[in-house]
Design a protein that fits this description.
By secondary structure, the chain is mainly α. It is built from 13 helices and two strands. It has a single domain, classed as MetI-like (MetI-like fold). Keywords: Cell inner membrane, Cell membrane, Membrane, Transmembrane, Transmembrane helix, Transport.
């Protein structure tokens, strides 16, 4: 039978959730409301005067070719970050789950990168690829593959993808490892007795049972790529060369704090928020149907 907790007073449940609700209101609803309000205004750089312009900021955005190009840049970037970070994390989790000796030590080493700030991750990877003295850049040049992320757009995109994915691998690793450890060993042993190869056991038993974890990480990685990678992009490429790596969240910052277009920046943040909400709804509405709980 289902056990339910009954409170003697009607106000106690509200009191218990009050701290969390306060955090949500202050750090989510209030900034979102401010963005919605500012998106329909035209303000000067110092905020001394403002004028209601309605949807003019949004109309100007969608007539700007550079802003439309940032949609494609963000889509490519988020897709590459999500796929690469989740794939490598799953591989590392499978390998770490088989380690017997010093397992805790290896798992701790794999978790450490998650403690690194996005800006630090960006600077770290820039140093590795700094031409001509970066370790990886020097190795590439020695085999005839010159690297220059300051001028080559493909190199710049590869750099921020590697930095952002490396930062997120530890987060994905934690959940994949927990998912692997929750799978009953009896299922794996039964498949082994039946003669299933390790590859077949993984795709027919292990991976389907990891589908709830994979779905959760897919949602979180998309949100991460859209929002939490600003520091990495800013430290690594500053949206360059040109605007080839100016993803949506970086363009919000650049137009607001560099170009001092407060209304346009607020409109961009509203659009970005809408995109993330829409993607999350689509994932839960359609992708979750294929998840096996």
């Amino acid at each position: 039978m289902e056990k339910r907790v009954l409170f003697k007073s009607s106000w106690l449940p509200w009191l218990l959730i009050a701290p969390q609700m306060a955090i949500i209101v202050v750090f989510f609803f209030w900034p979102a409301g401010q963005a919605l309000y500012q998106s329909v205004l035209q303000e000067d750089a110092f905020g001394t005067s403002r004028e209601f312009v309605g949807m003019a900021n949004f109309e100007r955005l969608f007539s700007d070719d550079s802003y439309l190009a940032s949609f494609q840049t963000t889509a490519v970037f988020s897709l590459l970050v999500a796929i690469s970070s989740m794939s490598l994390a799953l591989l590392l989790a499978v390998m770490a789950n088989r380690v017997v000796r010093l397992a805790g030590f290896y798992k701790t080493l794999l978790i450490w990168p998650y403690a690194v700030a996005p800006v630090v991750a960006g600077v770290l990877w820039v140093m590795l690829f700094a031409s001509p003295y970066g370790v990886i850049s020097f190795a590439l040049q020695s085999i005839g593959l010159p690297w220059d992320h300051l001028l080559n757009a493909n190199h710049a995109m590869a750099l921020i993808v590697m930095a952002a994915a490396w930062k997120q691998i530890s987060y994905n690793f934690l959940f994949f490892l927990a998912g692997l450890q929750s799978i009953p060993h009896s299922l794996i042993e039964a498949a082994t007795i039946d003669g299933a190869s390790p590859w077949r056991r993984f795709w027919t038993i292990v991976f389907p049972l990891l589908s709830p974890t994979t779905f959760f990480l897919l949602v979180m990685n998309v949100i991460y790529a859209f929002f939490d990678t600003f520091g990495t992009v800013d430290a690594a490429t500053h949206g360059g060369p040109g605007k080839e790596t100016a993803i949506l969240v970086y363009k919000v910052y650049y137009d607001g704090f560099k170009a001092l277009d407060m209304g346009g920046s607020a409109a961009q943040s509203v659009v970005l928020m809408g995109i993330v909400i829409a993607l999350t709804v689509v994932q839960f509405r359609f992708v979750e149907k294929k998840v096996q709980y």
